[in-house]
């Protein structure tokens, strides 16, 4: 009745999910082992080690939550937020709004400062707001894919540390593509994603947190009946974390030496993450960031030559996402559909006020390579000309090829 | 630094995760497409159709939550429970305790009736408790892997429907291995698992719910800022669901025609689920249940011949899990470790009061086949003899082979 799965091959140049390295795809076909098999707990431990390197941290806790990126954000926030806590959320795009949303769900008093989409905050602006609202937590997006901007974090982190405010960062879109220094930037809790610069399919949300977070959640520990010790049952604090699935104190006991059964780890996804991390570390973090910047430049040169206008403040551009304004006289989504239908190339639209106004081209992880940059430049030119948009013809590819011929990574 | 992933091949006879059909493993290597690619939304729609068939329901809503099985349980419970709601949880094993745990986290008043582990409730006992505590919701485990028992549901479902009580069922361990009739049994919301009788890796939690549940959650709808319409923002009910990730009203808008962005669907896992469901439907539900019962019988014949004693009430045995008492004079976990180390065969222990007292042999999905049954019988005999346990030697395999030679599925 149903046929064997048959999907087209795509060139994916969105800000996620992006193309998966064939080596990562391949390990997903590995026959599974049981969740407490020593062969599997070894894989779990290796993934934790590799995540620490990726996050540039000495934190003990670095593991994935079994869910998509926002599951990691929710796990982190619901584990640290006590109802009534004041959380300061500086918003400069859609994913800042998501942080507000999750904080509200868990009963925080959310204080918001906003920046026009396409720009980011001066650290001093955030620090000033901290002084005003005296938050328990600052929650901040590092890389805002909705606008293609990247917020600098270090000064904010240092100010938080000084004032004993918890600093929680959503680095879903930057991790593995741009520098993220958890310890040096004084980040207490950080959430990453798999389907962007790590080039692993969506489905896990790696995160890390330090002792400050650990102590906070230890006070709220609740172990479920049936696997708790008598003492744990008696000691349960009524301020327990409101989610079982996202309770980091329980996840910690599953990933730690106690191996207390919580969920059944998503075996094949963990294999994929292990391979994805292995490839990141094999390439080297610095090399990988350089590669992203290198291809970003080729793309920008080509788009500039074509005569398209970039969106947003260029000085704080996210290196893994390039936003361009949709030229007059053409329907944004129609261009995207034609790119997909005719060329098998996917680029993205954006959300809310920017929908239909900009296109976003992601150059993340395995998708971020020469043939893809050249493919999208050529295809976009073809489609724009087809729709009668006035652009400079025949110059984008020439400029990009010259760049690639002359410049090394 | 890190080597290519290299894991041993195992014969997995636990109650999950179990061996994955090679055809399912294979589709996991399929290159991915974007989440709003028409090629992908088609896969999403197909999965919904197939899930309806698996669940034997006409419900519109049948889709996976992106997380392990308990994420589906939490999504269902947190979406239907208003703080203060009375939830009746009849407990006959560890996973009943998990239902209590999740209900408590979301502020329900939980009423519990308990049954000695190894037995199940008479429907009349549950209905009597319903009359006493007048619950808003009854939450019940269909197949309790911790004890290997299966609870009959139909009469309870009919009583709930009559009294306008919501009936929520955890069928994680039975779905695809034993009959589950969502509509006929008056189940309002049901959660399944992938890593058991569907033989798909852990990481998705398929669920279904009917109009009664849908109406309940529609009243609590909250759409996040940044993607909500003005009207939706104004209309937000303060009784909103306490989790963003698990808010079924948002998941519904992602799986439904509105395709409102929520998470990024776990592409490769959905490919795996599609293939797993395709194989289940190709085999046929009735045939599949028969196959599980057929091999269960071979296993029981062999264990009986060996002289091992089964645990629990045989009349309500879960066909996909066989529990045996650990004989005197042998350390339960040592036997398991030797089985794993020497034979590469994994069987399970149990939880809490049953840990070390029983072994659990799962015969689920792809793991449930002749060579595996024979392998575990032969290996278990060898290991028990090695540890000096007095059993009937040389009879288990003979009896099982004879059964297989004489009886057809």
Automatic annotation (TrEMBL), chains A, B:
Cofactor(s) demanded: pyridoxal 5'-phosphate
Pfam family, one: Aminotran_5
Key words, A-Z: Aminotransferase, Pyridoxal phosphate, Transferase
Molecular-function GO terms, alphabetical: transaminase activity
Residue span, Aminotransferase class V domain: 37-349
Top-level taxon of the source organism: Bacteria
Family, as annotated: Belongs to the class-V pyridoxal-phosphate-dependent aminotransferase family.
Name this protein carries in UniProt: Alanine--glyoxylate aminotransferase family protein
UniProt organism field: Alkalicoccobacillus gibsonii
Taxon lineage: Bacteria, Bacillati, Bacillota, Bacilli, Bacillales
